Amino acid sequence: MDTILMQQQMTEDDALRADVYALLAALCREHPSSELLDFLKSVEVDAFTQNRMSQAWQLLRLAAERAQVDQLENEYVTLFIGISQGELTPFASWYLTGSLMEAPLIELRNDLSLLGFEREASVKEPEDHISALLEVMGLLIQQGASRERQAVFFQRHISAWADQLFVDMAKAPSAVFYHAVAMLGQAFVNTEKVYLQKRPDAAQSVHLRG
Fold first, then answer.
1. pTM listed for this prediction
2. Which residues are paired to 129 by β-bridges?
3. Is the Cα dihedral 179, 181, 187, 193 positive or negative?
4. End-to-end alpha-carbon separation of the chain, Å?
5. What digits encode the pLDDT tens for the residues 129-162?
6. Distance CA 209, CA 164 (A)
7. Which residues of the chain have pLDDT under 50?
8. How far, in Å, CA of 111 to CA of 116, rounded?
9. What is the DSSP string of 160-193?
């Protein structure tokens, strides 16, 4: 990993970005535990700062205060799994091509290999699940990847479709708690687009090689 990532001290802003990526990844991977709900209830939001991110945090905290763990499990299953298919299909290949296991997944696997990441044996979903991609972004930040490398991964594998996923999540018939998750996801993805947009052309995978 050291030969791939450029190590740098993580700033307070980057630490917060990594935490949000990790939170969204966890919420998209499975329904929140009672401990995670307690954390969300305790999140402090500046009431005097009214932007999309602060409003989304306020909404998520309120949703956590009203939520019950057993209901959240049913909501998550309906949204992401279903009997044959959930209300959402949270994979990059699906959003970018209309089918699963297509070219975006192959490109992602190549890039993950270059970065030194591999899927754990216990994980059954393809690597282009939204939770996996968000987790990788958080890890890149935590491990000190350069801003350029973060931008490349984000633009190649998240930017083109994650916002639409969160739009669909917000509109999903079963989304109650996850409506608030979607609002935070939308706000954060669009904040990251602005934050990373002035970085090198993400079409050039050579940037992932170092």
1. 0.89
2. 91
3. negative
4. 11
5. 999 999 999 999 999 999 999 999 999 999 999 9
6. 29
7. 1-8, 200-207, 209-210
8. 9
9. TTHHHHHHHHHH-TT-SHHHHHHHHHHHHHHHHH
